[in-house]
Amino acid sequence: MNINSLTKQRGAALLAVLVVSVVMVILLGVATTTLQSRLVLAQQSKQKLQDQAQVYAKTNQLIYLLASQRLTAAGVSKGINPQGLLRNKEGHWALQIIGDELRSDGQLISEENGLSYSIQNETGLLSINSSGQYWLKRWLQKVAYSAAEQAYLGDTLADYADPDNWSRPGGAELASYKDQLFPQPANFLLQGCGELWKLLRWKDVLLQQPEILTLCSLGRSDQLNLNAVPLRLWQVLWPNSAEKIASQRQQGQWLLRETDFLGMEPALLLEIDDYYSTLGGNQFQLQISKSAALTSIRVQRGRGLVAPFTIRMGQKP
Fold first, then answer.
1. Which of 102, 127, 150 is the last residue of a domain?
2. What is the spatial distance between Cα 230 and Cα 232, in angstroms, rounded to a whole number?
């Protein structure tokens, strides 16, 4: 074997070794990338599970508080101040505000671990199932709907929810829905705020004022709990006092007496006093979230011999 032949063989062997080395490096890179992506996916799945567990735990904690603790003008007590359960000689609560309450006006509460939640007493919202539609029409007035438009929208809503097929003067029953190619009216109380999309004349309202879907409730009372009105709704109803009410709530000052809210918002003098209060309500909307984990439920607090609480999922649109 001559020197040239030997050199060629050694060169071929070296090239083969280099090719194998390159292939091994590529395979190791692919394997490393795949392993890293799977580790990242595993970590994300673990974090998601932890987030869901924390949301689940917070949801159960809030349900327990709503079902078992005292409700005040400031919200729902956490039960950590024993003075909140004391009564005076007349049998009334010794403290009107306990000092350990969680707000029930829909304000977002954030924790250090990244979890956030809100509690909304439904008596602070616009009831779409009430017979009088008092505050719903007041809101329509504030967002620039005329008295005639309020009547049409109110009658349409009432006709959709009542059990008969007799149309109110400004309403709409089965025949009108067929003419407009709409699904027929439910003839039952609305089961969700999103159901407003199914009503004649309401589509334009929802397109122009989409916030109504987050400001309405399924309650049937016409009475508004002033301490539970979310700040964004207060801004619409009484814009002149919105900043002041936000500041006072932040400082833990709530409306307890007539002089409190009339001094805060003189326009309430023009309202019928049967339609507002500073306390009340046994139905709440809860939203709890952390990262992608989210729970939205409606909790009704039991009274007397009924169950301590009942829940309904997904009430927020």
1. 102
2. 6
Q: What does the pLDDT read at residue 316?
A: 44
Where in the sequence is the domain holding 167, given as residue range(s)? 104-313
Report in angstroms the alpha-carbon separations of 46 from 19, 41, 53: 40, 8, 11
Same domain, 130 and 175: yes
**Mean of per-residue pLDDT scores for the chain:** 90
Structural domain count of the chain: 2
Contact 313, 297 (CB under 8 A): yes
| Shared domain check, 288 and 158 | yes
> What are the pLDDT digits (tens) for 260-296?
888 889 999 989 889 999 999 999 999 999 998 999 9
Q: What is the 3-state secondary structure (H, E, C) of 232-272?
A: HHHHHHCHHHHHHHHHHHHCCCCCCCHHHHHHHCHHHHHCC
The average pLDDT across 289-316 equals: 82
pLDDT-wise least confident of 23-37, 40-54, 137-151, 244-258:
23-37
Torsion sign over Cα 195, 201, 202, 203: positive
Question: Coil, helix or strand for 70?
Answer: coil
Q: In 3-state terms, what secondary structure has residue 44?
A: helix
- Give the separation between CA 287 and CA 296, rounded to whole angstroms: 5
> Where residue 8 falls among pLDDT bands split at 50, 70, 90?
low
Alpha-carbon distance 41 to 20, whole Å?
31
Phi/psi for 116 (5° steps) reads -135, 155
